[in-house]
Input
Amino acid sequence: MAAAGAVRVLPASPNWYSSRCSDASGDGRLFGFAARHRVCLLDVSAAAPAFYGELIGHTDRISGFAFCRCPGQSSLCASSSDDGSVRIWDTEALAPVGEYSLHQNAISALHWSPLVKDLIVSGDEKGVIVCYWHNRSDSQQFFPEPRNVFCLTCSPHNENLVAIGYKDGMVVIIDISRKREIIHRLRGHDDEIHCLVWCPVPGEERLPAWQDELQAVPSEDGRVPNGEQDTATKKGCYLASGSKDQTIRIWSCTRGRSVMTLKLPPTKRRGGAVDPAVKERIWLTLHWPSGRSTEIVSSSFGGELLLWDLTQSGKRKWTLLGSSEGQNHSRIVFNLSSVKHQDKELLFSISMDRDVKCWDLSTLECSWTMPSLGGFVYSLAFSPVDTGCLAIGVGDSMIRVWNTLSMNNIYDVKTFWQSIKSKVTALAWHPTKEGCLAFGTDDGKVGIFDTFSTSAKNKPPQISSTYHKKTVYTLAWGPPTPPLSSGGEGEQPSVTLYSCAGEGIVFQHNPWKLNGEANDINKVIRDTNSIKHKLPAHTEISWKPDGKLLALGNEDGSIEIFQAPNLKLLCTIQQHHKLINAIRWHHEHGSQPELSCLIASGSINATIYVHNLKSVIESTSESPLTITEPFRTLAGHTAKITSLSWSPHHEGRLVSACYDGTAQVWDVMKEEPLCNYRGHEGRLLSVQWSPVDSDSVYTGADDFSVHKWHISKQEHTRPPQGKKSIELEKKRSMQPKVKSKKKKKPTEKSPAKQDLSDTMNGDESMKEILLEENGVLEHEGKKEAQETELPDKVSMTVSKDTSPSAYDHSSFSLPKPFVTQKATTVKKDPPKEKPAPDAFLKKRKPRSMLPFSTFMDHRAKDELYQDCLRLATCLKTKGDNEDVSPDLKDRIHLGLFADRASLHEMIDVEGKNHLENGHPELFQQLMLWKGDMKGVLQAAAERGELTDQLVAMSPMVGYQAWVWTVEAFAKQLCFQEQYVKAASHLLSIHKVYEAVELLKVNHFYREAIVIAKARLRPEDPILKDLYTSWAALLEKDGHYSMAAKCYLGASSPYDAVKVLAKKGDVTSLKTAAELALISGEEELSATLSFRCAQDLLLPRNWVGAQEVLQQHKSLFGQRLVFCLNELLCKCLSERSPCDRKSPVPPCYHSWELNREASFLDMVIEVWQNILGMDTTEQATCAREQLCSVEHPPSTSNTHPKQVLFHISHDLTLAALSYHIGTWDEAVKSILGAVTRSYDAGNFTLMQDICSIILPEGCDNLRHKLDSTNSQSMAASRSLEAFVAYGLLYDLWWNPLKDFLVLQKAVSEPALCPSELTAPEKTYISGQSSSEEICDQTAVAMDENLCNTTEVLQCEIKSDSRTSSVDLVDRQSKLSGCKVLLSEEIAALQNTQRDIAKVQEILADMIHQHQQQRNSLQENTNGSTQETNLQQSTETESDKPCADSSQVNCKEEVKEPITLPELTKQLLKAKQKLAEFPDNLKVFPFPDVLECCLVLLHLGSECPPELQEQALDLLRKHGSADTHQKAGRRFLT
Output
């Protein structure tokens, strides 16, 4: 570092968005602020600030900086960085004295304890607080809250207290000497805490304005009762916090609560250079002036600073700092810190507007402003008119104009930012017009500012409508050249603006008409010099001061000198062989006029050459000269030259700026280095010799700073070599790096809307890297990589005239593709350093089409030269003799440069090469290039290697070839099972049927239908065929709804209905029925609807069933059945509620029922009112409908719900007959219902139906019947019998209580289950499945297995239906059972039993015979046959007699009966049956013998005459074994 006093510096900008990254030293001498990864120190002890030095060592952004405040140690300070370390520095030596890295996360806050001289406290983003005592290298960690620390401050009155502010608005005060460290949690803010400050005066003095938030009510004199005030006053201390929520709160430390809240006022913007449309983030920082407990300074919305008076009550009183225009910051302020100078206190502020300001707190005025820079300094330019006015082009998208001669303010700097929106890379002042400054930017924009006008601050520049495609490198004002040079005086400007940019083009702009088209001077150069060859890319432009000559520097290292105005080429300097970065003509005003012909140039090579063009200017030669020898050579730099400047005060004295980090002053004539400046911390990008001070030079570098230094005060004379150079390289390499990128890959544009809060100013440095590190070769960058300080598109979100906020590079992005790269031509030199290998992994290089010739062109140099000679010879021969084909011998690859025949030979060799290496696709491409397509197609088809590309190219051979190729490709695709693609190709040659068939065969029905429907006529049969085939397949797989859609598509709705109904669930049937109705299939629809309704009965959903049925008139009869079924179920469930809860509750209609009427009348009333059965005709019609439906007879296996439905059908017929008045039919139907329940073995149901339909018995019925009709009379008798049968059992199972005593005494054994007759057995087995049986009966029947005594005991407990009926009543009922004891029916039933028995034996014999035959085939064993035969003769009636003794069983084994005997028995029984009258046989009747047995079991209850009759019948007809056993005790 050079002597600080000798250097005047515009430093790098302070970092943004840190709670404390600037501080002033305790002795008041220094003010330091973090700028990127360095700390900049200013000496503020005098009236004006002076650059003191920099603290260098961190490798990442500095997030916190604080001085030690203890006396005698004011030179010590500490800084924390994103590199994870905290460093301690000595500012006297500008050197580090300690370092520690105890945080695992990014450090976000730092403070040096004002009371403990070696204690540094820091906090990180995860909430860890580290206390470090550097004298003893001891540390302690705290973790008060798991939140993101935003700021922290140590108390100036108690060495153990630290206040911490968090991102979410929480403030805590901790005591670092205690284990449980948190003293207070202060809640009140609801957003980031930006700053915490302790009141400099200890104690909590009461102020009149503070009482509003205190809970205790003060007395008259303002004191709080109970002496609370005194302790608070002595012990506590106030703490102020500033938050993003736009409030300042004052907290009491003793009470741990807020005592005052200040809300930021909406201050009016005064002269702030900010676009109102730009919303910038608020930052609220605070400073509590020392010794003043009632005043506090805060930042505000737009950069204003406010002084608050805390004594004012009511509306808070605040005063604005800085009374006059332009004193305030124009953007938000981040940090405030102060020093004491004699009697006054100075306050320093750093802001987003990149200014550092010093305020006098006694006058509230701004004492001085120090501007700073937020980007690389690309360009420096002194105005030729306004002496000492230095324009600075900076990478932060702003231009600074520094009046270096200002007497009262050494940093008199104006800033221009309007419409720039990109890095300023080039500047040029108009040679004669004051304040006219041209600028060029990184994104190719050229414009002109007027810096002189008073309103300049707000006046946007003129922008040229012609943009360069790449970075503008250089601007120069010069005389007009065609077409602008034509025209008389005053019609055209005297000077025009030339711009040269990265794409290698120089434009001439008309300053009078910037919105017009600019001219490319290459056109004039070509026309004037009749040049046919390609012009080199231009990288630098410089006009001789007298405007007569123009020098253009090129990418290939040549410099061309042209004569104005027509740009005739005078000479070419072939000296540098690398890209030209700088060209400067010597000034005109020396004592040696010949020196004005000197031109100095610098390139990517480190050497500077000076040429003397005097001879060229005086030469009369018509053709341009070439200069290869320099006039002087200035060697010494070790890196590329970026800028040159001749001294205007001396003759032949030059200063150069170089990438080696130094500026060098040369005596050109002696080729001698005079002085070397090494004060910058980065690579130099620009240099200007002061126009007023011969000893001063200004340099700008990529360390974001401009230095003014004195030649006479430098200790070095020449650039650093060897070790020194390495050290400088090392110094520069401390700048943060980023992983190397692929050279040509354009990097992502940074997002336009980046939240500035993400980082702070100067972050862009993290992305700026040495060019070589980025894999960019030396010749590919100009003056130096303008690596992004600024995400290039950040500003695009803002309105046209936008404020700096849009492009302050507070946020950073990946580097742009290097904006300075000029080279796009072939590489000249190998790279000095290999880029990182990962750079090449990302993108694989495509395989070369011509590998052989490419390889041949990369052989040894000698062989390549031989190639050139051979080629030239061959071409010459060919030129002399047209017919002779050049003989290239073994150098086939030269066919590329010879005639077509040679090229064909070369292609054949390359093609063969590809086939051998297994790359047929490259061979095919080569043949296509050659034009031999047909052969390629045939070969590929034979090998099955056709591709889409080949097929696409095949039409060039002809239509037939194309069709043939497509067919071949389709076959090939079928082999590869790509049927859909094959079909698409067939379609392309209009083979629709083939395409459809191909898809159909391979089961791609959906695709086939799409094609057929889209391309064929609607009536084409193939479409129907597709639908039906697909439907069949879908049906097989069970996809019924899809199959139905196919049938509908094929216009066969009947099939669609059938397939839908296949699944058979309610939804399917309902849909199928509706579909059938839509399609006009009435009958089918009705059938399906009926099925659906029946299915809905299972879950007892009568409402749903009626909905389904009501669509069909033909199902009116069934609607009546369902209605009756619902009412019947309702009645049954009311009579005997079932205990078991059904999972689905029944869905009844909410009909109004007439409970007074009989069941049939109630039903008919519902039919009439609800279902609309108004007329007798309707009833008759419905009856006919129902009569046509036959239901099979019920058995014990029929589902109870189905039994009930069939019963409902019978009862509906009865109700209809009753309604019409045909009683004979009604009786038959009621009988049908009763016998159906009897056949199903559901005895209780039979009893319930009898009592529901015939509550009064059958007496009323008998009178209404036609007594002449024998059938109806027989039916009536049968019905009466069943009613009596039910009653009989009722009486037996529910005996009188008085009668029980009698029974107990007798204690007769009850009927065994084995002794019960068939119907009883059926009932017992069937009862468990019946849901309609009430508990009482079930209990009774189960108990029947025990003796009667137990049954009767059980019955006492149960609710017996007849317990209250007296004996007389029971006997009268028993007399009614007389109808059961019919002699003729008993005889008929006996005959029927005989027939059944014989048939059973016959069936058994046949079964045994079949078994014998089967076993004979397997095993011929005689003894088994005999036993089998014996077993076959035993009837079933022998087996169940488990009770009777074995002796009995043995006696009953009879001799085997022969077949003829059986046949004879059967015939006899049948004859006997035929003798009975028919009306007896038509209607069923309860088993007479069973009834006799029951009557006898009733014992003394039964009237004697009935007992006699019963015994008589038993003796007569009870010949069967069962009856004999059952009646044994009555008959003996």
Notes: The mean pLDDT is 80.
